[in-house]
Specification:
mainly alpha, globular
């Protein structure tokens, strides 16, 4: 992913692979720069909804795989230090009609803001509450 940053298929399938590996290899993915590959890829190709979907999904699965508070904090820090909150909010805004992007993107954001007042304030300052409410009203029939 780092070598072929402008090749959309490499980025898409890289995010997909990292998401599939996250359940068992989450620590290695974070330690070896997986988050550092996913977020720039999402910023590079904001119009590609499949890439946004797979990027958000991979990040969500990483957070879900963290079973203890210390690990989760490390993963949240990896995401937020790479401008994760604004990147995810952009994906949610650009793909407001794609339910799968909304579900996994909001999952990442909620995972990030739940552990830090600073991240919570960043979420609010970037317009996150409006994005979240729009997603919930757009997909009001979805329990996810």
């Amino acid at each position: 992913m780092n070598r072929h940053t402008t090749h959309k298929h490499v980025q898409l399938y890289g995010c997909w692979a990292l998401g599939n590996l996250a359940a068992w290899h989450h620590a290695d993915i974070v330690a070896q720069g997986g988050v550092d590959a996913i977020l720039p890829s999402m910023r590079e190709m904001p119009a590609d909804y499949k890439l946004q979907e797979q990027g958000c999904s991979a990040l969500s699965k990483l957070l879900d795989a963290a079973k203890d508070s210390e690990t989760r904090t490390k993963y949240v820090d990896a995401i937020t230090s790479q401008q994760g909150i604004p990147t995810i909010l952009l994906a949610l805004t650009q793909h407001s009609k794609i339910e799968s992007v909304q579900i996994s993107g909001l999952s990442v954001l909620l995972g990030c803001v739940a552990h830090s007042l600073d991240h919570h304030e960043m979420f609010l300052a970037e317009g996150g509450l409006d994005v979240m409410i729009r997603a919930m009203t757009t997909f009001d029939q979805s329990v996810d």
